[in-house]
């Protein structure tokens, strides 16, 4: 019981935004996971790129603040992974990641 009480009253426990912020941010990860089933044409390259930058910045924030917020760090690392995958799907769908054929003819 003392472990539970210690967790409740800790600087990153459920009485603080250090806990509820990451819990709310898992919604971004869930939404990106749900979008995996969608065709790449329905993805927004701009929004996915913004989410990649957002998660990268928030990972740095979670690492630099005291006490370190590992829950927020893991949340944004997960979001960064899923968003980068979505961005690669979008880029492939737009033709940005395809090999270009050499169109010069040899004479």
Topology (elements, then pairings):
Blueprint (H helix, E strand, L loop, with lengths): L1 H7 L8 H18 L10 H20 L5 H25 L13
Task: Explain this structure.
The protein is an all-alpha fold and 107 residues long. Helices cover 65% and strands 0% of the residues. It has four helices and no strands. The longest helix is centred in the last third of the chain and has 25 residues. The radius of gyration is 20 Å and the shape is elongated. The chain starts with a helix and ends in a 13-residue tail after the last helix. The model has no long low-confidence stretch (mean pLDDT 89).
List keywords for this structure.
mitochondrion; transmembrane helix; Mitochondrial pyruvate carrier; transport; elongated; mainly alpha; 107 residues; 65% helix; 4 helices; membrane
Uncertain stretches:
none
H/E topology pattern? HHHH
Q: Helix/strand/pairing class, anyone?
A: mainly alpha
Portion of residues in helices?
55-70%
What shape does the CA trace take?
elongated
> What's the average pLDDT?
89
Distance between the termini: 83 Å
Tell me the β content: under 5%
- By DSSP (H or I, 4+ residues per run), the number of helices equals 4
Report the count of strand segments: 0
Radius of gyration (CA) equals 20 Å
**Biggest sheet details:** none
Subcellular location: Mitochondrion inner membrane
Function: Mediates the uptake of pyruvate into mitochondria.
Keywords: Membrane, Mitochondrion, Mitochondrion inner membrane, Transmembrane, Transmembrane helix, Transport
Organism: Deinandra increscens subsp. villosa
């Amino acid at each position: 019981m003392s472990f539970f009480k210690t967790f409740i009253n800790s600087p990153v426990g459920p009485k603080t935004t250090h806990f509820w912020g990451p819990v709310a941010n898992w919604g971004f990860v869930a939404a990106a996971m749900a979008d995996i089933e969608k065709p790449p044409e329905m993805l927004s390259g701009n929004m996915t790129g913004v989410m990649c930058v957002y998660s990268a910045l928030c990972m740095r924030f979670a690492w630099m603040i005291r006490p370190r917020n590992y829950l927020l760090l893991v949340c944004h690392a997960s979001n960064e992974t899923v968003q980068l995958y979505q961005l690669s799907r979008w880029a492939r769908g737009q033709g940005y990641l395809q090999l270009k054929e050499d169109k010069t003819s040899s004479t």
